[in-house]
Amino acid sequence: MGKNMMFNEPTSTISLNKPIKTLFCLLISWTIVRCLSMENIQILLKYMKKQKYLSPMTFDEAMIVYQSIHQMKRWAWVRLACLETSLALLMYAYFEGKSVDFCVGVKLYPFESHAWVEVNGLPVQEDESTEKYKKIMMI
């Protein structure tokens, strides 16, 4: 590579190299899902969002945090599905003073439920289309 070759550095204010914070967020989300009903999870998340001013997270920041969560998830000794990983991303954003939208949706025939995170109305790193789900919760 030549000396004049330049690389674009990510322009993020998120502290990205924090595997302990990522692991902590996964642990919190796993515990919340195991200990609280969806109704109480909704109450908790709404309360958290009201407690301090949160600036919006950019889509690029959310993608980087998502990748960090999924890299850490490979080492988990328990099942971490869409609900736990979406909550972990929300928690990570919250601890960084950022805001994302946490969504839960359902579809019928056959019944499925799914949780995901959106930034500016765009789902963050979804393998399947979230349009087939009817949103029943958005925080």
From TrEMBL:
It comes from the Bacteria. Residues 46-137 form the Microcin J25-processing protein McjB C-terminal domain. NCBIfam families: lasso_biosyn_B2. This is Lasso peptide biosynthesis B2 protein. It comes from Paenactinomyces guangxiensis.
